[in-house]
Amino acid sequence: MAYETGAAGEAWQYDVPTSGSTHLPPDAGYGKALMNQGYGFEVAVADLIDNSIDAGADKVVVHFLRDADRILTLLIIDNGHGMDDAGLEAAMIVGRRRAYGDDALGMYGTGLKAASLSNASALTVISRTKRSRAAGRRLTAEGIEDSFRCDTVDQRYAQDMVDRYDGVIEWHGTVVRWDGVRAFETVARGHSDAYLSKAIARLENHLGLYLHRFLQRGLQLDIAVWDVTGAGAGFGEEVDHIAVKPLDPFGYKVPGSKGYPRTHTAPVEGVGDVGLTTHVWPAKSKQAGFRQIGSLIDRQGFYFYRNDRLVQAGGWNGLRSAESHLVLARIAVNLPSAVNGVFSLDVKKERVTVTPAFTSAVDKAVDDKGGTFQRFLGDAETAYRDGSKRSEVVRKPVTPPGKGIDPAIKRVIKEELPEKPGEDPIEFKWAPLPEDVFFKLDREVNRILLNKAFRDDFNDGRRGGSNDAPVTKALLYLLLEDCFGLGRWERIRQDRIDYWNTILLASVRAQRERRLRSDD
After folding, report:
1. Which of 87, 332, 420, 496 could form a disulfide with 83 if both were Cys (CB 3.0 to 4.6 A apart)?
2. The pTM is what?
3. What is the rounded distance in angstroms from the CA atom of residue 291 to the CA atom of residue 328?
């Protein structure tokens, strides 16, 4: 647009005039900015799983590989439709724009690279489709500095990786591999078990919360740990396996106030009517969807969803301040699919920014019976105050359960019993023990050892997974939990352990005899 100089006092120039243009490709130094996008570990993994869901996957595995001393790498495997060579190269282009469908979880086209390289020094993607052989591309920090160089993965290795995960990939799918994961490299030798226990628990909670609608609809999402020590030609041994369960932030059985949930309609200028599904949790609820998703004070307020994917879990977005008497108040909001100037989502998909048009509309929102949003807040506050007046039985805190116990059982234990702060979880492990011993306590490392000779008897002769024999382990946890974290070991407590061991040993032998007779 040409610009003509006018006289002084001429009207304001609404458009900035230009006289030409040039294309400015990114400098290789942009790679440093790409690797410092602020992606937390759990947020980054969730972003990659979004890609799997967009690719049509209904089975995803987050796979930690380790050896005796270290955590080596992380892989995410899915059975989506996969990519051929051209698709892989397009996916690895930094800053590439792509078209997304209205129901896609992806938005900006940067998640794969930014999420990965914010956490790892190298990103490898291997994929196959129904019509193309396995292929792979590798992007490293050094490659980005070298004019965004992308390496081609040896085709034989790509095929080998696909074959290793044929239980997931079958005819098509993708493997994303992170090497040089910064969080792993800070773990001191010998501390991998403690790190993995906490990291997996955080990841399980994050994925269970932010992807809960997909999990409720049947997405199979597992977290597994494999020890490659002495693997040889094989792939090592699975030492932990967790099936991620949905953590529904609105999954109460009975509401905390009569008539909820309700749908309020907010007239948002520039967008139109936006539905607000208001919920009041029951006071003092112990359910995982209330207690295990973070601080209650932080989890009150708005829960924004984009195409059924949770993108903000709590917060008032400038409407008001968080207050303890509103911890029961939660509101589900499905973001409009059309691009608008009121709602904006950050690149990491964990926070929504709104303009005053939204907060102003919320104040005007009403439900189908004329109930106002302020009345909803009043109902939530009343439920909280009424609940605070009721007395409840205070249960004794316990040392939390750890590896070897099925995650579903651990979740119920956490819902029912408060945890002792700062205590390492109690782990179950099958180990060689004398034939006259069924279980043994290793109190120094909070571990219950079970006699490996009897493992088949609890798995009908089949190879059991790391979380096998759930009933036996749960009962032993309840019996033995108070034996950990003690100072002086009392003689009467040892006697109790001894006769429990004797009785349980007789029980497992009786179970073995029954199983052998049924086999005959």
Report:
1. 87
2. 0.81
3. 11
